[in-house]
TrEMBL record:
Keywords attached to this entry: Oxidoreductase
UniProt cross-references to SUPFAM superfamilies, sorted A to Z: NAD(P)-binding Rossmann-fold domains (SSF51735)
Stated name of the protein: SDR family oxidoreductase
Keyword Oxidoreductase assigned: yes
Similarity annotation: Belongs to the short-chain dehydrogenases/reductases (SDR) family.
A single GO molecular function term of this UniProt record: oxidoreductase activity
Superkingdom field: Bacteria
Keyword Oxidoreductase: yes
Length: 264
């Protein structure tokens, strides 16, 4: 980056629209320089010019399709080699609608490549770089369907459950090394992803749909508060803690030297 700020630089994937574009704007407002990654170069360049002028930060754009190995490795290498990057927003993702039995498996492959493989490789690169520096943050965008998979498509829901699990494990690995990790679990957010998936947003109750600015603001507030998991629409954090507590209670009995009595 040509201009360094005390905040460092934030690399945002899927930055040309929706959640990614909103993160870019909010982070620029906070004083981060930006490295914006997406496929749509025209949108990226327009946004970069606006954010640089409005907030006085350095904004670089990188056209990349993270379902393509060469593009994904280019971004991965940038994370490993650029010491100015202090925050990764792993946002790029796609959704599918419909049943698993009827799924277009080529599209499913692309979803897994983007939502799972690319996210994992970028998180790994950031974890290595940030751990060595003893600072930094990794924000992985998951979804509430990680907790309620029956709500939506099986492949998409499973990909977001993976993101949640990866984030929780990664926190245990790098949190003690000075790296902050967060999984964000939005509900339905008003972005282009649903139209692209084939889901009719108008068929959903209005009270289920959050505006993207409100979602990102809540997610960043959770990050500021040091939350590992942020669910922007959850009114009472005690409900999440009860869920975590119930899961912990299972722990001592998940692996034992004999089967439970009810199976004998």
């Amino acid at each position: 980056m040509s201009k360094q700020h005390a905040m460092g630089s934030a690399l945002v994937t899927g930055a040309s629209s929706g959640i990614g574009a909103t993160y870019a704007e909010r982070l620029a407002r906070r004083g981060y320089d930006l490295l914006l990654v997406a496929r749509d170069l025209r949108r990226l360049e327009a946004m970069a010019g606006r954010l640089a002028q409005e907030y006085g930060v350095a904004v670089e754009v990188l056209k990349a399709d993270l379902t393509r190995k060469d593009d994904m490795r280019l971004v991965e290498q940038r994370l490993r080699s650029d010491a100015s990057i202090s925050l990764l927003v792993n946002n790029a993702g796609v959704a599918l609608n419909g049943s698993l039995a009827e799924a277009d498996l080529d599209r499913a492959d692309d979803l897994i490549q983007l939502n799972v493989v690319a996210l994992t490789r970028l998180a790994a690169a950031a974890a290595a770089s940030f751990s060595a520096a003893g600072r930094g943050g990794i924000i992985n965008i998951a979804s509430v369907v990680a907790l309620a998979p029956e709500m939506f498509n099986a492949i998409y829901s499973a990909s977001k459950a993976y993101v949640l699990s990866l984030t929780q494990t990664l926190h245990g690995e790098v949190g003690k090394l000075g790296v902050q990790v967060q999984a964000v679990l939005p509900g339905v957010t008003r972005t282009e992803i649903w139209e692209r998936s084939g889901l009719d947003e108008a068929a959903l109750p209005a009270e289920m749909i959050m505006e993207v600015g409100e979602m990102v603001d809540a997610a960043l507030a959770g990050f500021d508060q040091g939350e590992l998991v942020t669910i922007p629409s959850l009114p009472d954090a005690a409900d999440w803690q009860a869920f975590v507590g119930a899961r912990a209670k299972l722990g001592p009995n998940l692996s034992r030297n004999s089967a439970a009595a009810r199976y004998k």
